[in-house]
Structure formats: structure tokens, C-alpha cells
Design brief:
By secondary structure, this protein is α/β, with parallel strands linked by helices. The protein has helices at residues 15-18, 49-60, 203-209, 234-247, 268-276, 296-312, 348-361, 400-415, 440-453, 488-495, and strands spanning 3-4, 27-28, 79-81, 96-98, 108-113, 116-121, 174-180, 193-194, 201-202, 214-220, 222-223, 228-229, 232-233, 251-257, 263-264, 283-289, 317-323, 374-380, 393-394, 397-398, 422-426, 429-430, 437-438, 457-460.
């Protein structure tokens, strides 16, 4: 991703690898550009659990009088506060719900989801809601398979292709937004901040107050041990923000590289110095975003560092964030496993990275042999000119939810990476490639797929973009789609079961 729209995530590099023309750019780095040269970027915020808990207590009493076991009368005026209880919607089918203390008109309702009764965008109201035990509007019973039944706003099946014996939420599942640390940062104090609510606030406070639990900070660049974050030295960034994130109760993934810069690491000592700055109970992961034209030697060196880092920090997960296409077959309407017919969606940097996992970490190329502490995080965005060769096409455009699912299938089919070690990162709202729009319905589609397929995580680019602005060129500070509402995508993901 370039420093134009994403403020630091991904850009798909090496158009020639796929033989397709795409024009895309990203802010400063988070882009899955399926065809631009190596540029790219990613983001998230903080708040105190006690504040969220107080709002939870205040809001949940709005449910008083209804049974949690079903059989209650649907009240169109009741507000079901979700808080930290994924089962708060039980007994409240059709009633308004959300993660704020009062109803702010978000448009979420308690409804039947793939994993049971939950809170999600849209859905039936009290006038047409079915009892909890059965399907909603002919949908599946709680916990049933939603294949070919639930349709998204874009007109494609929301969960088509999800395995009926899929996973559910893994104890290692990670969900949360990326935070481009340079957007709205307080440059006087080096405190990571956001303006998503309309006024400047510490990022950690904002995320926690709005129900978030994990964040990915982007991007550290330079040589490990001497790294910087958008010009802020690594030690200064950690000193200013580590305690704020811990007080807010947020789990933290540190993301390095991105489209706008490169991260290198030539020694285990340098890696230790980098991680030691942030080490603590809230640090859960380190991410290598590889898309800025790194050489094979640099990529091999990065992957080589993972073994010693894993020994020193056995509780950390290590992710490899790679640009991807989502090749499908002509006429294919919904995502599905293509088996041996699947096309490799990775570009030259992705291929080099997975080959480095073989040489540096001893991976034998099988699902059983994949290192359990490593995940592949696919940038499901900016595919390029719509065609089955790059994405799953619907209505002449890349269907972003289905394409994200297809990318996961293709990675598993072509490379034997276990689903439990695959993560997805879409770019919410308007992507850099005009016509590619990731909607609230797509958020629900991806969330349900991740839960059903037992993926390792879902992230999104980015927290600061989760506020409305009209459709148009992609922006680093709004969603370029409109009508989603402030933090509408965070709420849509959580409403579909991600926490």
C-alpha cells in the first residue's frame, strides 16, 4: 500500500506475475493491490474495560423482563446490550441490539446466525422474527449450516462454500482492526490517537470503549532493534503506548513492513531488542507484512528469525501478511474449494515467503507439517479489473466477501496451509481499485466463514477508516462508501460473532 490512501498497508506487487493489469494504490501501506508495484499498509484503538463494563451494566438492564431462554414477547422498543456476552440475544429475536449503552440507530437486530442467536446488521424486526429455536425467515436452526441459505446485500450467498463441519471460534482466534499509527498521532507525546468519534482520543481508549479486544499496530520499519514507527524510534513508541494498551485490556499484534517501507532483521539479538520493548501479557503476535520489494535474502532472514523468537516467546503467534488474488472459475457464483484446479493467488513475494518457511523452518509442504505458531494473513483487497482470474465476479464487479473466502480456499488448496493457520484482512468500504466495495454484508459473510471454517483470525484496514464519507476515491480516514455509520464495520464483524 502506498502512502496515498491506506496509510501503510499493502500493495499487490508484480503485475507481470499474474499477467493482468490493475491500478490500485493504498494509503501509506495496507493494500492487497492485485497488480501494483510493491507498496502497501494497516490499524486500531484503546479504552478501559471498566468503562465498557459500566456501560454494559447500564445497558443490559434494558433487557429486564425478557427471558434468556426463549419464549419472551418481542419488544420493538427494547435495547439488547451485547457487552461481553455473545449469548445476550437469546430470547430476543427481532429486538434491536448492539455494543453501546443505548440504541443509536445502528440498525442491528438479534437474529439467527450460523452459530446461533446473535446480533448482526439488518435482520428481521419484531414483526417478523421467528422464535430463537427455529430459523429466521426460513433460515437454519441455531448452530446449523448456513450454506446456500443466507444471502448478502450484494445478492450472493453469504456462506456458500462453508464446510458443514467447520470449526467455530478457536481459543487462538484473533479479531480486530489495524491501526496506522501515523494517522492522528499526537506527535508531541508519541501517543497513538484516533479521530473516529469526531474528536481526538487515545486510540487504546477508543477501541476498548467500543468493544474491541485486540489491535494490530502498523508499521514498524527499518532494521530490527533500530526500528521506527513513521519516524518515531521504536523505544519511544513502546514507552508512550505500551502501558495505555495494557490498561485498556487490549491484545496487541505488532506489524512490520507494509507497502510504504521495509522491515529487515539480520540477527536474533535485534529481534529480541524489538520484541522486548513490548513484551508482556498483552503482546500476542508479530506480523511480517511482506510487499515492499524485499529481496529473497531479506525474506529468508526474516523467516529465519521466527524459530529463535518462538523459543524465546513461545506464547506469540507469528503472521506472514501477503497480497493475494482470489481466482475463481468462469460463471462461479459463490466461493468454494477448487481442489487441484485452484490457482495460486500469491505473487512473487508470497511464493518466496512460503518457500522460506520450508527452508528456514523445515516445513515439508503438508498441512500436518505446517509450523503451528505461524499464520498466513491474506490481504483480501484491491484485486484489480474484475475477471475470474483475479476475483469472484458478481454484477460485473469483484464480490468482496466471496472473494475473500475464495482466497482462503485457494491458499489451502494450492499450498496446504491449514485453515486454522489462515487469517483474512479486507479493506473496509471503498478499496483503492474503483468499483471494489467491501460492505457491511461482506463483513458478516467473512465473519461467518471464518467461524465455520475455523480460521485463525480476521482483521481489517483500518480503524480510522470506520467512519462514513461519500463513495469516491479511497481515503485513509473514512470508508468511502457511506451509510455504514461510525464504527459500523467493527459492529458488523462483532455482530456476526467475532470477538
Amino acid at each position: 500500500m502506498r502512502a496515498i490512501v491506506h496509510s501503510s498497508f499493502f500493495a499487490f506487487a508484480s503485475l507481470a506475475v499474474f499477467g493482468c493489469a490493475t491500478a490500485a494504490l493504498d494509503d501509506a501501506g495496507l493494500s492487497g493491490d492485485a497488480g501494483t508495484a510493491a507498496d502497501g499498509g494497516a490499524s486500531r484503538d484503546s479504552g478501559t474495560p471498566s468503562e465498557a463494563g459500566a456501560a454494559q451494566d447500564a445497558g443490559r438492564e434494558a433487557d429486564a423482563g425478557s427471558s434468556a431462554t426463549g419464549g419472551s414477547t418481542c419488544d420493538p422498543n427494547r435495547w439488547v446490550y451485547m457487552g461481553d456476552d455473545p449469548n445476550a440475544c437469546r430470547g430476543h429475536a427481532g429486538e434491536a441490539c448492539g455494543w453501546t449503552g443505548t440504541n443509536l440507530g445502528q440498525g442491528f437486530h438479534c437474529q439467527q446466525l450460523s452459530w446461533g442467536m446473535g446480533c448482526a446488521a439488518g435482520g428481521p424486526t419484531c414483526a417478523d422474527a421467528a422464535p430463537d429455536g427455529g430459523g429466521v425467515d426460513g433460515g437454519p436452526p441455531a448452530g446449523g449450516n448456513t450454506d446456500a441459505g443466507t444471502s448478502s446485500d450484494s445478492g450472493t450467498s453469504a456462506d456458500a462454500g462453508v464446510a458443514a463441519d467447520g470449526g467455530g471460534v478457536s481459543t487462538n482466534f484473533v479479531f480486530g482492526p489495524y491501526k496506522d499509527t501515523t494517522i492522528h498521532m499526537n506527535w508531541n507525546t508519541n501517543v497513538i490517537a484516533t479521530n473516529v468519534s469526531g474528536s481526538a482520543a487515545p486510540f487504546a481508549t477508543s477501541v476498548a470503549q467500543n468493544g474491541g479486544r485486540a489491535v494490530t499496530l502498523a508499521f514498524a520499519t527499518g532494521e530490527c532493534g533500530q526500528e521506527n514507527w513513521g519516524g518515531v524510534p521504536g523505544a519511544a513508541m513502546a514507552t508512550a503506548n505500551r502501558s495505555l494498551l495494557e490498561v485498556a485490556g487490549l491484545k496487541v499484534v505488532l506489524s512490520t513492513g507494509g507497502a510504504a517501507g521495509s522491515f529487515t532483521c539480520g540477527s536474533d539479538a535485534g529481534m529480541n531488542a524489538f520484541l522486548d520493548r513490548w513484551a508482556g501479557p498483552n503482546l500476542i503476535g508479530l506480523d511480517f507484512d511482506i510487499e515492499a520489494g524485499q529481496s529473497t535474502a531479506v525474506i529468508d532472514s526474516l523467516v529465519t528469525r521466527l524459530h529463535a523468537a518462538h523459543v524465546r516467546y513461545p506464547g506469540l503467534r507469528f503472521s506472514l501478511t501477503l497480497a493475494t488474488l482470489a481466482a475463481s472459475q468462469a460463471g462461479q457464483a459463490t466461493a468454494r474449494s477448487l481442489g487441484a484446479a485452484a490457482t495460486d493467488g500469491l505473487n512473487v513475494y508470497g511464493v518466496t515467503t512460503l518457500n522460506a518457511v520450508k527452508t528456514a523452518l523445515g516445513w515439508d509442504g503438508t498441512a500436518a507439517g505446517w509450523p503451528a505458531y505461524v499464520t498466513v494473513n491474506l490481504m483480501t483487497m484491491d484485486y484489480g479489473a474484475p475477471s475470474p482470474g483475479v476475483c469472484l465476479v458478481s454484477g460485473g464487479q469483484c464480490q468482496m466477501g466471496q472473494s475473500a473466502m475464495q482466497a482462503a480456499y485457494d491458499l489451502h488448496d494450492r499450498w496446504s496451509v491449514p485453515y486454522a493457520n489462515i487469517e483474512l484482512t479486507p479493506m473496509i468500504g471503498g478499496n483503492d481499485v474503483q468499483g471494489e466495495t467491501f460492505t457491511l454484508a461482506d463483513a458478516a459473510t467473512v465473519a461467518r466463514f471464518a467461524l465455520a471454517q475455523g480460521l485463525a483470525g480476521v482483521h481489517y484496514w483500518s480503524y480510522d477508516r470506520d467512519v462514513d464519507c461519500p463513495p469516491g476515491a479511497a481515503s485513509a480516514t473514512c470508508n468511502s462508501v457511506g451509510a455504514a455509520g461510525t464504527l459500523g464495520f467493527l459492529n458488523a464483524f462483532m455482530g456476526a460473532g467475532l470477538r
